[in-house]
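During the no-cost extension, the postdoctoral fellow (Dr. R.K.) reprocessed legacy sequence entries with the updated structure-token encoder. One reprocessed record is reproduced below for audit purposes.
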Amino acid sequence: MRAKLSYAVTAAVLVFYFVLVGSRGVMLIQSGTLITVTFGVAVLILPVIGLWFLWKSTQFVRRANALAAELDAEGGLPVDELKRTPGGRIDRDSADEVFAKRRAETEAAPDDWRSWFRLAVAYHDARDTPRARKAMQRAIALHDGRPVQQL
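Re-encoded structure tokens follow.
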């Protein structure tokens, strides 16, 4: 719940920022000179890119959460079997061990979105965020029946 609240606050701040920057871009365009119109258009492009990125990120999170809910209903969510340090951090060797099991599971069933979901969680636990995101994107694509790209 804390992560959702943090995400919502961050998204709200970003939207406020995009509106603020967009209004400055409009003001520059309204000035009417060649330079201010050029800068105004350039300034308007930034909020558009930011909103697109925020929208795509939100869609990704919603789809991943939907897969997690479906997998939880099936009883297939990965069990947290990771060892932790006294400070609460995940033990690297433990994460590598679990990752090896998840990778083998995915290699055995490469077209199963469930194995890709669990592999994404293992990548995340191993602090490999780019690969975790790609594995989750593949799980989402397999679940939705869309063609997938190779990792």
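The helical segments are 2-31, 34-74, 92-108, 113-125, 129-144. The chain has a mean pLDDT of 89. The remaining legacy entries will be reprocessed before the final report is submitted.
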